[in-house]
Amino acid sequence: MTQTVTDHFTEQLSLRARALLHGLGADLPTEGALTVRTPVSGGVLARVPADGPQDVAAAIARADSAFRAWRTVPAPVRAAVVRRLAALLVTHRDELAELVTLEAGKIGAEAVGEVQEMIDVCEFAVGLSRQLYGLTMPSERPGHRLMETWHPLGVVGVISAFNFPVAVWAWNTAIALVCGDTVVWKPSETTPLTALACHTLLRRAAAEVGADPEVHQLVTGGAEAGEALVDDRRVALVSATGSVRMGAAVAPRVAARFGRCLLELGGNNAAIVTPSADLDLAVRGIVFAAAGTAGQRCTSLRRLIVHHSVADGLVERLRAAYDQLRVGNPLDEGVLVGPLIDGRAFDAMQEALARARAESGEIVCGGERVELVGPGAYYVRPAIVRMPAQTELVREETFAPILYVLTYDTIDEAIGLNNAVPQGLSSAIFTLDQREAERFLAADGSDCGIANVNIGTSGAEIGGAFGGEKHTGGGRESGSDSWKTYMRRATNTINYSTGLPLAQGIHFG
């Protein structure tokens, strides 16, 4: 496209974003210090205000004030807000998904899937509202009862990343609200428009069921806004999704004030392919996990560990599959790979490919830029790179569609390669051998928070707790008993006797 055509295309995208926001009930500011660019064309989509420390402090104060009353509302009643939010998301699913595409560059199917994930976690949270179970335990003292109860924690600060601009917020917010917490959300400065849309829908849901809309606050901006949220003592829990570098800065600051952290950080995910694997199944799982979202998922497949006996054949099948991947405008039908988020992501990918060549890696296919829209948009072909060994480069996470292929001889060697990276988010094995599968899932198998058999590394369901170990941060969101992160535990001893015996048989006086 010429620059004039590109500018016109961007203007159309901007007008569409405004129309979508208006349809969702949100009014987009006409100006602000924060420039929002669309990766679809690289042009300016909008400008929104950048909140400073005083704005963040005011939002926290409102959330803290709302918490005083919200924590006393029965959990099933609190769930009414989340139930209504789910209904609004169903009604506006396609509009919100299109906004995700405009702002984050996801293809339509993935954007709709992300909104559906929001709906699913809302349904999970509504059911959870009647299952915030404590425990009753036998006391060693006669006439006593020992139990545990769970109570709302306080203000939850949510810092989200661009690659899942709405789903990760919903994971945290739906459960936090049901648990009796209030939320202050600081979205990525790359994706504030989707945040504005979700904030509007949630406050509308609260108003429609008679709840206080102040239970949710939105602040937009960059690092300054995030730091203000991290450092405020009124924020009981900081749930931060992003890079390992970001988590390494956030964790000690929150710990210094004795707050809590829930960290979802980097993933350098691997899949093992054994000689017994169903290769048709493996190819489908590998291609989506490695190339989906242009390799910009925290669960994207980055390392493929293949038994040497099937490596050559599998690589050729993957090359053929990659040749069929349509790279293009994510708003177009049939496109499977959209743009990288920005030029920095493209530069990081090219630097990694250059390092791979220098370390005797063989680029099987991909890696080149596809000129589609204009100089500010970064479309690339997903790359497959065969590496002679797991070098320092392969141990690092590059947030781009690069799949490194390594070979192995024994299952123990393969598991060792899987584990020999600092990150520990997601992992997978493709095998029809039950012993290999069980070995992979055992205590001395994969050391990741997610370990799959015969599916890829991405596409987690909301029913299971999501998160990872090591440099991934150790946090857990979404399903299972992750709700406990958003609450505080109290141990209660009730004496219904006339005596006052002490524990451990101690006699005093």
Account of the protein in words:
By secondary structure, the chain is α/β, with parallel strands linked by helices. 40% of the residues lie in helices and 20% in strands. The protein has 15 helices and 23 strands. The strands form seven sheets. It has a seven-stranded mixed β-sheet with strand order 12-15-16-11-10-18-19, with helices on both faces. A five-stranded parallel β-sheet has the order 7-6-5-8-9, with helices on both faces. Strands 3-4-23 form a three-stranded antiparallel β-sheet, with no helix packed on it. α7 links the parallel β6 and β7. The mean pLDDT is 96.
The average pLDDT is 96
Distance between the termini: 90 Å
**Helix content estimate:** 40-55%
**Order of adjacent strands in the largest pleated sheet:** 12-15-16-11-10-18-19
Q: How many strands appear in the DSSP assignment?
A: 23
- Category from helices, strands and their pairing: alpha/beta
Strand composition percent? 15-25%
Largest sheet: 7 strands, mixed
Low-confidence stretches: none
Any idea what the radius of gyration is? 24 Å
Domain Aldehyde dehydrogenase: 33-489
Keywords: NAD, Oxidoreductase
Protein name: aldehyde dehydrogenase (NAD(+))
InterPro entries: Ald_DH/histidinol_DH, Ald_DH_C, Ald_DH_CS_GLU, Ald_DH_N, Aldehyde_DH_dom, ALDH7A1-like
